[in-house]
Amino acid sequence: MNLLSRYGFWSAQHQVRTDMVMFFSLFYLMYAGQVSIELTIIYSVKKPIFNGCI
User: Fold this and answer.
1) Going residue by residue through the chain (54 aa), what tens digit of pLDDT does each one get?
2) DSSP structural state of residue 54
3) pLDDT recorded at residue 5
4) Which end of the chain is more exposed for a tag (fewer CB within 10 A), N or C?
5) What is the DSSP letter of 1?
6) What is the value of pTM for the model shown?
7) What's 45's DSSP letter?
8) Which residues contact residue 4 at a Cβ distance below 8 angstroms, ignoring those fewer than 6 apart?
9) Cβ neighbour number for residue 12 with a 10 Å cutoff
10) What are residue 45's phi and psi, to 5 degrees?
């Protein structure tokens, strides 16, 4: 017995939609988290200070 015949079309559609939203939200959170970590690393690196000697 498959999901469609057991619960009906609209119930199955709702479950699939919920799963897809959670799936794509995972990728968004991975991307957004990665960008914030990269910006933190870029702006936290100390620039070398030259005292006039080359």
Assistant:
1) 576 778 788 888 888 899 999 999 988 888 877 766 676 666 766 666 666 665
2) -
3) 79
4) C
5) -
6) 0.50
7) S
8) 12
9) 15
10) -75, 130
